[in-house]
Amino acid sequence: MLPRIIIHNSISIDGSLTNFEPNMGLHYQIAANYKPDAHLIGSNTIKKGIEIYGESIPQEEEKDFQKQERDKSLPYWVIIDTRGDLKGLLHTCRRFEFCKDVIILLSEKTPKNYLTHLKQRNYDYHIVGKDHVDLTKAFEILSKKYQIKTILTDTGRILSNILLNQGFVSEISLLIHPLILGNKSYNIFNDVEKTLKLKLLKKEILEKQYIWVVYKVEK
């Protein structure tokens, strides 16, 4: 059985993912409520996060070449990185105290030197797909090998829209901010290819001005 996939994002009233400062406290408070077994993240989101929140990339240390002993209830970070964009950056993820460990999803086109890089550092990785990651195969592996039942993704538009277009998403959770971006809007659902029917599961006003809504995606 494939894991349950939940998209969770902070957006403006007109659906923008970017060009505003989200309430990260509320965002991650909601995400934690789901108690996911894994977070699914694209490599570009990791890179942007490091650029925004990291002052500089720390040097790798001996401990970065080994899996860390963490609370078993913590979620994995499952990262799609077919081009090896995170070579030399993954230790910043492994060091994050709320991450059990990192699992990398690759394709047959992934550079061989990146595979060597991952092996040397004892990262779990899986080659699933010829050119791009075959998400069905990836989710089957995550379910069977790691007993992952719930995956939450709060990554960017590209991965979210792929998940929606391929029919993997069970729920959409949105923290709506009291802003209109207008012509600066980067719409979260701009690349969804067909009309999706949704059923409202939850609506809640937070801190008097934010609205949290949760929809079930009708199959």
Low-confidence stretches: none
**Percent range of helical residues:** 25-40%
Strand content: 25-35%
CATH top level of the largest domain is Alpha Beta
Please state the average pLDDT score. Answer: 94
Structural class: alpha/beta
Number of strands: 9
Q: Tell the overall outline.
A: globular
Distance between the termini: 16 Å
Biggest sheet features: 9 strands, mixed
How large is the radius of gyration?
18 Å
In the CATH hierarchy, the third-tier topology of the largest domain is known as Dihydrofolate Reductase, subunit A
Keywords:
219 residues, alpha/beta, Dihydrofolate Reductase, subunit A, 9-stranded mixed β-sheet
Structure description:
This protein is of the alpha/beta class. The chain folds into two domains: 1-37 and 149-219, 3-Layer(aba) Sandwich (Dihydrofolate Reductase, subunit A); 40-148, Dihydrofolate Reductase, subunit A (3-Layer(aba) Sandwich). The protein contains six helices and nine strands; from the N terminus they run E-H-E-H-E-H-E-H-E-H-E-H-E-E-E. The chain has helices at 24-33, 43-53, 90-94, 112-120, 135-146, 157-165, and strands spanning 4-12, 38-42, 76-80, 102-106, 124-127, 150-153, 169-177, 198-206, 210-217. It has a nine-stranded mixed beta sheet. Strand 3, helix 3 (90-94) and strand 4 form a beta-alpha-beta unit. The longest helix has 12 residues, at 135-146. It is globular.
